[in-house]
Design brief:
Layout (H helix, E strand, L loop, with lengths): L12 E9 L15 E8 L6 E3 L5 H4 L12 H17 L7 E5 L7 H6 L3 E5 L3 H9 L4 E2 L5 H11 L2 E7 L8 H11 E12 L1 H6 L12 E2 L2 H9 L3 E9 L5 E8 L7 H13 L4 H27 L4 E4 L3 H10 L9 E2 L17 E2 L1 H6 L4 E4 L5 H7 L1 H5 L3 E4 L5 E2 L1
Helix pairs in contact: 5-6
The protein binds ligand DWN.
Ligand DWN binds next to α11 and α13.
Length: 405
């Protein structure tokens, strides 16, 4: 039985997706023979309520100088981080010369707003290539993993921070106790930590099983997040639902007793009780929904293949690695995947080795169906691909259910 990474209790995993490659391990044909696999298995700890991966991948295998995900590929996300930065400036930066630190700052999509206003800032990003992109934009960035040692170094050189930020990073870090301890070191006594990640409630309700992959070590609820930070003298003072990445939650954390706790925190706890995020049966039901969703998608794709229809994947997302490998999709069913990231183009998807091609290959010869692996960006993508629809093309989505649009 695996041991919980948060409370060290033992728990029973509730689902295995089988042998899985790295979600962002896009590769060349020469690299096929050495491809890395692990078992993608997820469990729920009844003691502290944390949902987590049972087998973790070494962070250095995932986040390195060739990490292919650049945050700035979505215009919707760029706008979202602009709004996030504005909120922080308006509500949480109260000192005369504030200092903002962001963990997992990627290509600087959020910090650029602080840099643009000459606000003291520092991005902490372990993937060298994306960190370099931020540096080129004039954003102060250090290429390291966020931990206690780094927190001490930052305090020694630049002092404590008024605000710590994290967007789609906290759930990626296996040693969350080290992060919480680092927050205590780096944060001013009256400071705030704000972070957001995909929300467990949405993942369950929408059967968004593709949120589960190596990089996401944890699947947060306000209950599990509260438990974690309470061990370190910190508390959740506010929660704000975000309509991005298929449903995210922003948590505002402060040293215990230094700020008023919003009623939204209690309301979300109550909603989680109703949803049953604390009950083993909920995860059994989730597993059944995932299996049903997989079977429906495979059935649909096989039927289209028999009818002689062309299906192309749209957006070689990290999430697609789980769907493709769990459902056993191959290039027989999905001809190729169109993606706008140069670092993924000309390569093959992890595990199933479906070719990834530039977007112009999609528009040059529209398929009959586009399987939307970037379903979380549906509005943005469908908005700009109206010609595909006008040419008779149809979208296939699988979250919250398998559907042809
Ligand atoms: O937590 C994480 C999330 C937030 O971002 C990660 N660990 C890594 C990444 O996950 P993802 O790859 O599933 O993210 P997205 O934003 O759903 O997908 C990005 C991919 O989609 C990129 O390869 C670019 C591609 N894309 C595209 O080809 N055309 C995206 C858009 C918006 C488009 O129009």
């Amino acid at each position: 039985m695996p041991k919980c990474l948060i409370c060290e209790d033992q728990y029973q995993p509730f689902m295995s997706f089988g042998r899985m490659p790295l979600a962002n391990g896009f590769l060349t044909a020469e690299q096929f023979a050495d491809e890395y696999f692990y078992e993608l298995k997820i469990g729920f700890c009844p003691a502290c309520k944390m949902v987590q991966l049972a087998e973790l991948v070494d962070p250095e295998k995932m986040f390195h100088a060739n990490y292919p995900f650049y945050s700035s590929t979505s215009t919707r996300m760029a706008a979202h981080f602009g709004e996030f930065a504005e909120l922080v400036m308006a509500k949480y930066l109260n000192s005369s010369d504030p200092f903002v630190v962001e963990m997992g700052s990627n290509d600087g999509i959020m910090l650029q707003h602080f840099a643009g206003r000459q606000i003291r800032h520092l991005g902490v990003e372990p993937s060298g290539n994306v960190a370099q992109r931020a540096v080129e934009k004039g954003i102060q960035t250090i290429c390291r993993f966020f931990d206690q040692e780094l927190a001490r170094d930052i305090v020694a050189e630049q002092g404590q921070a008024d605000v710590l930020l994290g967007a789609n990073v906290m759930c990626h870090i296996p040693d969350l106790h080290s992060v919480a301890a680092a927050v205590r070191i780096l944060l001013k006594p009256g400071g705030f930590l704000l972070f957001e990640d995909p929300y467990l409630g949405d993942t369950i309700e929408k059967t968004a099983y593709d949120q589960i992959y190596d990089e996401h070590a944890f699947y947060f609820s306000v209950s599990s997040v509260s438990y974690l930070f309470e061990q370190h003298g910190l508390e959740v003072i506010d929660v704000l639902a975000q309509p991005v990445h298929g449903g995210s939650m922003r948590y505002v954390i402060a040293p215990r007793g230094t700020a008023k706790v919003s009623e939204r925190v209690l309301a979300l706890r109550a909603r989680e009780e109703e949803l049953g995020v604390h009950k083993a049966e909920t995860y059994e039901r989730f597993r059944c929904s995932v299996e049903r969703s997989r079977d429906e998608l495979v059935r649909l794709l096989r039927a289209l293949k028999e009818e002689g229809k062309r299906v192309v994947g749209y957006a070689a997302t990290s999430k697609s690695t789980t769907v493709i490998n769990y459902c056993g999709l191959t290039s027989e069913l999905v001809e190729f995947i169109s993606d706008t990231t140069p670092a993924k183009q000309g390569k093959f998807t992890p595990g199933a080795h479906i070719p990834v091609k530039p977007h112009k290959e999609f528009t040059a010869n529209y398929p009959d169906y586009a399987l939307l692996f970037g379903w979380n960006h549906a509005e943005e993508i469908m908005g700009k691909e109206q010609e595909f629809k006008a040419n008779g093309g149809k979208w296939i989505v699988y979250v919250p259910g398998v559907q042809v649009i």
